[in-house]
Design brief:
Blueprint: H1 19-31, E1 36-41, E2 44-49, E3 55-56, E4 59-60, E5 92-95, E6 100-103, E7 119-120, E8 125-131, E9 134-139, E10 144-149, E11 155-157, E12 162-166
Antiparallel strand pairs: 1-2, 3-4, 5-12, 6-8, 6-11, 7-10, 8-9, 10-12
Length: about 170
Amino acid sequence: MPQPKDGSTGATNGMRIDPGLVRELAELLTANSLTEIEVEDGDRRIKVSREPAPVLGGALAAPAPLATPAPAPQAAAGAAPAQPVEEAVSGETVKSPMVGTAYLSPEPGSKPYVTAGATVKAGDTLVIVEAMKVMNPITAPKDGTVKKIMISDGQPVEFDQPLIVIG
């Protein structure tokens, strides 16, 4: 076997990167909403980082696409009767930018931020989504009227779940 030109005994001088470890670290970043993670093992140190998603007033910077809610499925036999199917509401749907718990008012028992039919201005707080003990205000992306509130107070919400429709 030929000897390396640097005079070493054949041992690698560069770091061997474990793609599985890098992938696992990237998944930890996403799962825990982190922007950077670093691990060290002897002489080997791996740092994985990413840019956070742009945030504008507590909501994602990209405008929310127009959407209409799907009709409610019919109740199964023996289940509680389904609520009547409501008419689809047109307007801009404000969606949750994160997983958390949605609150319609600043504290229990107080007046809600908005109600159906209320007029809002761009930047007005619509709801709060609590994620990891942090209260994140979700604001109106434009001036308009609250057409429909699609969640209840204290309800768990998923990423991209419709919260409020503004028309």
